[in-house]
Design goal:
Strand content: 25-35%
Radius of gyration: 18 Å
Largest sheet: 4 strands, antiparallel
Helix content: 40-55%
């Protein structure tokens, strides 16, 4: 399973065995919170199976979903690197299996494996660019465009393509999808309904299928 994780793709079997020696495998049920926003960071995580949502809460308790972590992705490294509290919370949205590496072994790993350090730097840069783009989208794009763009981003990161159709398995409800796109729930429903009426999109249980041939048309 480790060989399928992009973070470790350049490591040989001996190095992968070292990762296993400093990591613990944990299984989280749906709804389990791995860590809370503003608490001290104690561990770094690699998701082997399942889905994890990263989210924050406003002062009045409203939730904002920032991203959906899929198998093979890592998270939780930021507070271990800068020593500050968690910037967001993480919660399993379906049964999930993770590898957990605590702070000291994680920093030792970065010190001795530049490939891993470089990958994490690249990932953090990507997230910063995503944040900048999200701010731009909220400022300049209308609700419909934001929904369409978010759907395409989810398809790129979590979709599987066969021919002209991309199937996206998203274990998030309408409220959470609307939060990710930064639109009201009604706007999300309206856009998805319009896409279904035009046969561009079909939906099932936690699953959406995009027909690219109709989208291009």
């Amino acid at each position: 399973m480790l060989k399928k994780v992009q973070l470790f793709e350049s490591l040989n079997d001996e190095q992968l065995q070292h990762i296993l020696s400093i990591a613990n495998k944990q299984i989280f049920s749906t709804g389990s919170v791995l860590f809370h926003e503003n608490e001290p960071g104690a561990a770094f995580y690699v998701l082997l199976k399942g889905s994890i949502k990263i989210f924050t809460r406003g002062s009045s308790g409203e939730e904002k979903v920032l991203s959906l972590i899929g198998a093979g992705e890592s998270f939780g490294e930021l507070s271990l690197i800068d020593g500050r509290p968690r910037s967001a919370s993480a919660q399993a949205v379906e049964p999930s299996t993770v590898l957990t590496v605590t702070a000291k072994p994680f920093l030792e790993l970065l010190r001795h494996h530049f490939d891993i350090t470089h990958h994490i730097m690249t990932e953090l840069c990507r997230r910063l660019r995503d944040t900048n783009q999200h701010v731009y989208d909220l400022t300049f794009l209308d609700a419909r465009t934001r929904v369409l763009k978010n759907l395409i981003l989810l398809a790129n990161r979590h979709g599987s393509r066969i021919g002209n159709k991309i199937t996206i398995r998203i274990p998030l409800n309408y409220d959470e999808l609307a939060q990710m796109a930064g639109v009201p729930k009604q706007a999300l429903s309206q856009v998805l309904r319009d896409l279904e009426d035009r046969l561009i999109l079909s939906s099932g249980s936690n699953e959406y299928t995009l027909d690219l041939s109709r989208l291009n048309g």
